[in-house]
Design brief:
Pathway: Metabolic intermediate biosynthesis; chorismate biosynthesis; chorismate from D-erythrose 4-phosphate and phosphoenolpyruvate: step 5/7. Belongs to the shikimate kinase family. GO terms for molecular function: ATP binding; metal ion binding; shikimate kinase activity. It is found in: Plastid, Chloroplast. It holds the Pfam family SKI. This protein has 311 residues and is an alpha/beta fold. The chain has 16 helices and five strands. Strands 2-3-1-4-5 form a five-stranded parallel beta sheet. It binds adenosine-5'-diphosphate and shikimate-3-phosphate. The site of adenosine-5'-diphosphate (ADP) has 14 residues, from helix 8, helix 13 and helix 16.
């Protein structure tokens, strides 16, 4: 079994393999939980204080954390985002997603995370937060495409070259990202429609942010549709136009999101937390749920991987 895993997950040479040793998940559930409170206090402080050494370490690993020349160029192009410190501080007032990230991280073995979901579902917002607390690099697929097109915006690419050209660039970007480890990727909402993209995203763990269309339409109406050409329309009030467009898109591709390894349902989190509305959920709460769903997925995956004879 170990050989099969090693074959599937080829770590680039910079990864410290001792840290990636396969750990049984029951130690995740019991042993770690016993220690987590104590360890977390120091950890939260370490994350909240600006630490130049960590920044340096991140930038160094960003330069080398890739397994081919393309991804090296990708990283050196400076596509690692700077993090929104306000967001992180807000997170620290919540339930500390750091704790959940530290719990899950040893069991990821360096695997990347791909956030999928409809436009406006929070892939970028939540993805940045997840990358920060995991100590992973963050990439936004749309931004990478814009960089590959010398700064041409997604809206301009759609206008001048058409959607299928854009989809080709999206697949190129995912292909490059799929050779990298320890990255969190915010994919474009339509990345799920091409089966080839799933081949690349399944190199890591895919997480679907499942947000009700009404909430999406409110968010989109608030920020406008300039950067989202598929929603752009001159006529009608912003919420109604966004809702109608999103409904049509959902009918076409809703099913495709279910290919993701983990589903983060904002409705379920709101019920669990006793909130009336999904709009009460913070990115930190959503990130915590994402880590929990990843944890459940890893547990299921492990059960599936161990043949009966080995138990
Ligand atoms: N949990 C949330 N609650 C309220 N607004 C949010 C939340 N997450 C994201 N947003 C807002 O919704 C908009 C779209 O979010 P974004 O992260 O860009 O989505 P995506 O990358 O999936 O298109 C942004 O204006 C963002 O600030
Ligand atoms: O849903 C889609 O087809 C698209 C979503 C957008 O990304 P976001 O989901 O980040 O808005 C962007 O890739 C492009 O406008 C197409």
């Amino acid at each position: 079994m170990e050989a099969a895993i090693a074959q599937r997950v080829q770590y680039p040479s910079w990864v410290d393999c001792r840290k990636l040793e396969r750990k049984p998940l029951n130690s995740l559930r019991y042993a770690q939980r016993a220690k987590e409170e104590k360890r977390f206090r120091g950890l939260a402080l370490a994350h909240l204080l600006p630490d130049k050494r960590n920044e340096r370490a991140r930038s160094v690993s960003s330069e080398v954390s890739c397994s081919d020349k393309n991804s090296s160029a990708l990283l050196q192009a400076g596509s690692v985002h700077s993090f929104d410190e306000d967001l992180i501080l807000k997170a620290s007032n919540n339930e500390y997603p750091f704790r959940k990230a530290e719990e899950v991280k040893p069991y990821l073995h360096g695997r990347s995370m791909y956030l999928v979901g409809m436009m406006g579902s929070g892939k970028t917002t939540v993805g940045k937060l997840m990358s920060k607390v995991l100590g992973y690099s963050f990439f936004d697929c749309d931004t990478l495409i814009e960089q590959a097109m010398n700064g041409t915006s997604v809206a301009e690419i759609f206008e001048h070259h058409g959607e299928s050209f854009f989809r080709g660039k999206e697949t190129d970007a995912l292909k490059k990202l799929s050779s990298m480890y320890q990255v969190v990727v915010s994919t474009g909402g339509g990345a799920v429609i091409r089966p080839i993209n799933w081949k690349y995203m399944h190199k890591g763990i895919s997480i679907w942010l499942d947000v009700p269309l009404e909430a999406l339409a409110h968010r989109i109406a608030a920020v406008g549709t300039d950067s989202r050409p598929l929603l752009h329309d001159e006529s009608g009030d912003a919420y109604t136009v966004a809702f109608k467009r999103l409904s049509t898109i959902w009918d076409e591709r809703g099913e495709a999101y279910t290919n993701a390894n983990a589903r983060v349902s904002l409705e379920n989190i709101a019920v669990k937390r006793g909130y009336k509305d999904v709009s009460d959920l913070t990115p930190a709460e959503i990130a915590i749920e994402a880590f929990e769903q990843v944890q459940s997925y890893l547990e299921k995956e492990e059960t599936m991987e161990i043949p009966d004879g080995d138990l």
